[in-house]
Amino acid sequence: MAEIRSGTETVDLEMRVKASPETLWEFFTDPEKMTRWKGRTADLDPRPGGVHRVQINDQAIAVGEYLEVEPHTRILLTWGWEGHPEVPAGSTRVEVTLEPDGEETVVRLRHADLPSEAQRSEHTDGWQHYLGRLSSSAAGGDPGPDPNESAQASQ
User: Alpha-carbon distance 83 to 59, whole Å?
Assistant: First the structure.
């Protein structure tokens, strides 16, 4: 599914999706489409300075701010977890690029400034999980229930 290239402080993932960049773009910027593949709720204002807040479950809420927005091509935002001491809200950066290739799109995700190998590993697993769900959703499929929506909430 995804190719992983780990730098010192980054997670790099790449995958091909059977959807156009325009279709994929909506899954990163439209709250209703975002929650088809990631999160219970999403508050998204995809413009520089706009909020990016996605509630995965009762414990995990990703919070950041859009820094750069190039429609159908690229998003750069800050990222972190509400109330998390090691990766607090807005403390890291996530960049997503969408490159058309025939009837598919190459999706590249780079998550930078993660503070430890343990966090890089956790975020690699998380992004792989959600990019798989994105691929299914953007291609018109149903990824099914997300086990992460209740995983931490029940602990």
Answer: 9
Phi-psi region of 22 (alpha: psi -120 to 50; beta: other; left: phi over 0): alpha
Residue whose entry in the numeric block shows the structure tokens 């290239």: 5
Residue position matching structure tokens 């792989």: 128
CA dist., res. 151 & res. 60, Å (int): 10
Cβ count within 10 A of residue 121? 13
Task: Name the domain count of the chain.
Answer: 1
CATH number, domain containing residue 50: 3.30.530.20
What's the start-to-end Cα distance of the chain, in Å? 30
For 83-117, the pLDDT digits (tens) are: 999 999 999 999 999 999 999 999 999 999 999 99
Rounded Cα distance, 67 and 59, in Å? 25
Q: What is the pTM of this model?
A: 0.90
**Could you tell me the CA-to-CA distances from 70 to 25, 28, 51, 88 in Å, in that order?**
10, 12, 16, 26
What does the alpha-carbon distance between residue 58 and residue 149 come to, in Å, rounded to a whole number? 8
Domain that holds residue 37: 3-139
